[in-house]
Amino acid sequence: MSNAQNFGKVAVLMGGHSAEREISLMSGNGVLKALRDSGVDAHAFDPAERDLSELKRDGFARCFIALHGRFGEDGTVQGALELLGLPYTGSGVMSSSLSIDKVMTKRVLLAENLPTPRYVLLRKGQYSAADVAQAANTLELPLIVKPAREGSSIGLTKVSQLSEMQAAVDLAASLDCDILCEQFISGDEVTCPVLSSNGVVRALPVIRIVAPDGNYDYQNKYFTDTTQYLVPCGLPAGEEEAIQKIVLQAFLTLNCRGWARADVMIDQRTRKPYLLEINTSPGMTSHSLVPMSARAAGISYEALCLQVLASAGLDHQKGALLA
């Protein structure tokens, strides 16, 4: 759609009810400004303050989903928009609900022989102290403990000593009924966005993340300027292409569409990449990685927003083809 008016009235869904509300508002306002600056009739819409049924009543033609986490990235809003018949950006109902669940994502990836760290699942109210200790014994220390369905590193703990394990599990359990204990992969942390264009999916440049003390937590993701983002990533020859290949495979395996971003760890000893998760509604803040990677590929923030908006659709429509 070269003419921005062809998009019709666009709702930028932002805010919402999740633990990532603050980040979603930052993403949404960035997208809103970019779309308006490009001539799109775009309006902010916060599902925490307005009922989604008002989208149809108020004449919106499509939605740009800038919601993160639960009730925005998990298939619930997508299902509501399907019922309303309003095209939306990003993945559909099933792939959204699968991808936000880190345990279900792992099960699908493993079924397709895609590499992901080993894990142990604990369920809230069902694990004992012995189960927690056994998880640490099975995966070996250090390891990662996190809620199965939160993003932005919320509730995530790197456990280095057994004495820290119970508190880490309890923290994750306060946010989710499923607690993911995951093998820690020591090495380079990278991320790779995926973007569709004219019905073709392609991987954008890989970004290598160098955080203070290797701690890429909520604060270092969004509110500090000390984290380094390297693009070009500077990885050894062939590694970037290998990462892009498995990220595209994961994107298609989970039946994602529109856009996404995959987080990957590279084992420092073997140089093998391991898929951590797929984000189907990536951040669009000033610190966000998809705009950074797109810029390295020659795509401005405004052009990125327009391209994502142009890919809006419904589940029954045909998916994209691999480049």
Structural features, described:
This protein is α+β, with helices and mostly antiparallel strands and 323 residues long. It has 3 domains: 4-89, 3-Layer(aba) Sandwich (Rossmann fold); 98-115 and 185-322, D-amino Acid Aminotransferase, Chain A, domain 1 (2-Layer Sandwich); 119-183, 2-Layer Sandwich (Dna Ligase, domain 1), CATH 3.30.1490.20. It is 33% helix and 23% strand. The protein contains 11 helices and 14 strands. The chain has helices at 21-37, 53-57, 76-84, 93-100, 102-111, 129-139, 165-173, 218-222, 239-253, 289-296, 301-310, and strands at residues 9-13, 41-45, 62-65, 119-123, 143-147, 157-159, 178-183, 187-197, 200-203, 207-210, 228-230, 259-267, 273-279, 321-322. Strands 8, 9, 10, 11, 12, 13 and 14 form a 7-stranded mixed β-sheet that branches. Strands 4-7-5-6 form a 4-stranded antiparallel β-sheet, with helices on one face. A hairpin with a 5-residue loop joins β12 and β13 (273-279). α1 (21-37) packs across α11 (301-310). It is globular, with a radius of gyration of 19 Å. The mean pLDDT is 91. Cell wall formation. Mg(2+) 1 binds at residues 263, 277. Keywords: ATP-binding, Cell shape, Cell wall biogenesis/degradation, Cytoplasm, Ligase, Magnesium, Manganese, Metal-binding, Nucleotide-binding, Peptidoglycan synthesis.
